[in-house]
Amino acid sequence: MSAIHFYKYQGTGNDFVIMDNRNGEYNFLTEQQVHFLCDRRFGIGADGLMLLNKQEGYDFGMKYYNADGRESSMCGNGGRCLVAFARKMGLTNEKLTFLAVDGPHEATLSADDWVNLKMQDVSGVEINSLHSYLNTGSPHYVRFVEDVKAVDVYNEGKRIRYNDRFAKEGTNVNFVQSLEKGIFVRTYERGVEDETYSCGTGVTAAALMTAGAETKEYIVPVQTLGGKLEVRFTRTGEMSYNNIWLCGPATLVFEGNITLP
């Protein structure tokens, strides 16, 4: 039986278990144990789990696991929460740099737990008549709808995520409604296999798909079930985007100890 000290953070309702692993003390975690910790009935409850690791050449390294216990691709809201956690753990540089599975990132923080996270450049977007498909650190299917609140996100998202094309690798599925200012996004996340209150790489993908043909900087306010985010980016050419920033709150919910089975 192993007892661990954990912290729980949330960014617009996207919630995460986090541990300070800079001394390597949580390297033993198994897929089953991560799944247990994320379980909402028998564990702490979260959409994913992250380890704050030492990383040469950076302020820290980010290791991310989905709620199913498997190591996964980049999580935008998770990255923002890990930056807030790193600040709490004493990493006080004005700008923090870290290495995630999709490459290097940088971030800045405001005093009120607002984190600005720089995402990877995006190109190679696939445009279809009903949807777009792109990778913002994780793969995302984006469909614009008239009334996002009326969409059966769980069943429709699951159908797309497990269709012939995406079943093997999986995809996240985003339903997006254009608002007077910005967009409203709801997301079915692979690895959670359900709708989450917010998905950082998902709202980033949706925001990029609102850009016109003009090469300029865009600022897109985003509404999710869990709250408000903002995506800033520059369109640089035909389906090519850089200087992408995911901005929003990242808040400590509680910390505690739990004994692993």
Automatic annotation (TrEMBL):
Gene source species: Chitinophaga agri
Gene Ontology process terms (BP): lysine biosynthetic process via diaminopimelate
A Gene Ontology molecular function term of the record: diaminopimelate epimerase activity
Matching HAMAP family: DAP_epimerase
Residues engaged in binding substrate: 14, 66, 76-77, 172, 189-190, 200-201
Catalysed reaction, written as an equation: (2S,6S)-2,6-diaminopimelate = meso-2,6-diaminopimelate
Annotated GO CC locations: cytosol
Homology family: Belongs to the diaminopimelate epimerase family.
Top-level taxon of origin: Bacteria
Pathway it works in: Amino-acid biosynthesis; L-lysine biosynthesis via DAP pathway; DL-2,6-diaminopimelate from LL-2,6-diaminopimelate: step 1/1
Positions marked as site (Could be important to modulate the pK values of the two catalytic cysteine residues): 140, 189
Main location: cytoplasm
Localisation: Cytoplasm
Catalytic residue positions: 75, 199
EC number per UniProt: 5.1.1.7
Key words, A-Z: Amino-acid biosynthesis, Cytoplasm, Isomerase, Lysine biosynthesis
Entry function: Catalyzes the stereoinversion of LL-2,6-diaminopimelate (L,L-DAP) to meso-diaminopimelate (meso-DAP), a precursor of L-lysine and an essential component of the bacterial peptidoglycan.
Classification via InterPro entries: DAP_epimerase_DapF
Protein name from the UniProt record: Diaminopimelate epimerase
Subunit composition and interactions: Homodimer.
